[in-house]
Each structure stands twice: as C-alpha cells, then as structure tokens.
C-alpha cells in the first residue's frame, strides 16, 4: 500500500513540506485510542533472537533509525512503534539555527536517493531536552554537532555543551564531523583536531558515574589512509565505535535530474561504498570496535550485507522514505530466518 498508493502521492509534493506533513500525521494517528497498539502489532517483531548487546547497551533488534529524520526528538516514541530497535535524534547543536536557505532537500527518484543540504537545522539543545524528558523507554542516540557560526577552533566547546546537557537523556552519543552541509565541518575529521575533540569528550565521559558510549560518524569519502587514521584515533581516544557512513559528496553514475544539486547524497547510490568502508574498518582493525552500518539500505539483502561486512547494528533513513515502514519488519524477519 505504501509504495503503490501513499508514496506516489507524497512524492508529488516538495520533500521538506512532506516531511513536516508526515510528522504531523504520525503524531495525529498516535493520538487515536487503540491505534498505536495496532501500529505496533503490524510492524514490531518481538523476539529474543533479535536482541543485541553492543557497547554495553541492550537493543531490542539491530535495526535503528539514522539521525536526520527526527532532528528535534519530536516523534521518537511514535517512530519506535514502526519496529525500530533504537532511534537516533539530531544532529543537535547548542543553539537553535535555521540551517541553509530553502530549497534544500531533493529526491533523486530514478536513483532512489536523496540530496540534502539542510545545514543542521534544529531547535537547539534545550528544546530537544524538554521532549526527551518524556521518554518512556525508547533507546535513544544523541547525534551532536557544532553551530554554523562557531569557528572550528572553538568547535570542542560546542560538542562539550551538547554532551553535558544531553548526557542524562540519551543512551549513546554520536559525534558528527562528517556532514558536508556545514562549512569546514569535515576539516574536523583531520587527525589532530579529531583526536583532540574525541579525547576531550571521552575524558568528560569517564568522569561520570556511568560513562555512555561515544561513537564517531564518518564520511564515505575518506581515503584508505584517512580510514586507517580513524582506526588509530578511535583506539587511542577509547571511544566506543564508529557509524559508517554519513552522506557522500560523490555524484558518480547518477541519472536523476537533480543530480547536480549540492549537498550530501544518501540512498541506493551509497550502498556499495558504505559497505566497503564498513568492511575496511572491520578487517583493518581486527574488529576492535563495534560499527553501526548505514547508507543505502533499501532491502533485507542490503542489511544482511552490511552485517556480514562487519556491522554490529544497522540504521536506515532514505530506505525508510522509499520503501516505507514495512522495510524494518522485512529486515527483522530476514534476520530471524538466519
């Protein structure tokens, strides 16, 4: 029904407008007595065999929602009802910011991809915390970044502010230095600034009574040499793991009319490269740390490929948009078949 009726209608309208409309509809439907139970019954698979324990956390199943969809933690509990094992919110910055000028979100229908240049648009850390205080058991990852106006030399302070404020309300953290849509942000992936940033956050983390996993989200556009640096940095800073990968700036082999738009590309064009990065990190590190695999998962086969390459967990976003909520259930069913 989603792919044959709902998606064709939604795809006739502006992607960002559809995003807000869909959020409103999901929120509305969950206010109808009995409907949340029906949604859970349709999409959730409760089975002990799906449970995973990774970096000290217990996940109901290994299929999560990637950051970017629920930036401001507005409907995380409702989204969990569609079968996700965990929800990652953000990217959140210390202060609210509008992001880049519209139009900034583009479908690449023929390629089953999306290009976005949103620019960390979000309501800021305090607004997100107000909503997270109402969490009733959803496993939450907090994806954090710096404000656009904060120079890279002061970036550590922004990440520290987010870490300290969000600490009581999320289960794990994701340090996002790999979005292509904030000027110069990817420069923080260089060895020296990245080591300083992660070491600082981990030192703060270890001062807590219960340290929480800190993950690094990396770009798919890194070279093998840079990926080897990432392995070294993760191990030297003692953070928990890596999310591979963010969106790409590559436009190789695209056929859709929007292919020349600037921004980060997600979806099917990213499937192969993100799996390559996962396999490289897993093999070269001797599986020294967990990897969350994300990028171009549009089918159970894509998900199983990521896990076989070395991912401990996976996340979807663009696949959720193109394939619908049934995708989460299909992946979990495929995992049970083994």
Keywords:
338 residues; alpha/beta; TIM Barrel; 8-stranded parallel beta barrel
Largest sheet: 8 strands, parallel, barrel
Based on secondary structure, the structural category is alpha/beta
Low-confidence region ranges: none
What name is given to the CATH topology?
TIM Barrel
Q: How many structural domains does the protein architecture include?
A: 1
Number of strands: 13
Task: Identify the overall geometry.
Answer: globular
CATH superfamily: Aldolase class I
The helix content, as a percent range, equals 25-40%
Write down the secondary-structure element order.
HHHEEEHEEEHEHEHEHEEHEHEHH
CATH C-level class is Alpha Beta
In order across it, which strands form the biggest sheet? 3-4-7-8-9-10-12-13
Helical stretch count? 12
* Overall residue-averaged pLDDT value: 97
What is the correct CATH architecture? Alpha-Beta Barrel
- Strand content of the residues, in percent? 15-25%
Alpha-carbon Rg, integer: 19 Å
Termini separation (Å)? 27 Å
